[in-house]
Amino acid sequence: MSAADAASAPAFPVIGDWTLRRAAGDDLDQLVALERVIFESDAWPAKLWRSELESPYTWYVAVVATAAPDVVLGYAGLLALPRAHDADIQTIGLAAEVRGHGLGRELMRQLHDEARRRGVREMFLDVRVDNPVAQGLYTSFGYQEIGVRKGYYQPDDVDALVMRLTLEGLDTRPSAATRPTEGQ
Ligand SMILES: CC(C)(COP(=O)(O)OP(=O)(O)OC[C@H]1O[C@@H](n2cnc3c(N)ncnc32)[C@H](O)[C@@H]1OP(=O)(O)O)[C@@H](O)C(=O)NCCC(=O)NCCS
Question: How far, in Å, from the CA of 134 to the mean position of ligand 1?
Answer without folding.
Answer: 5
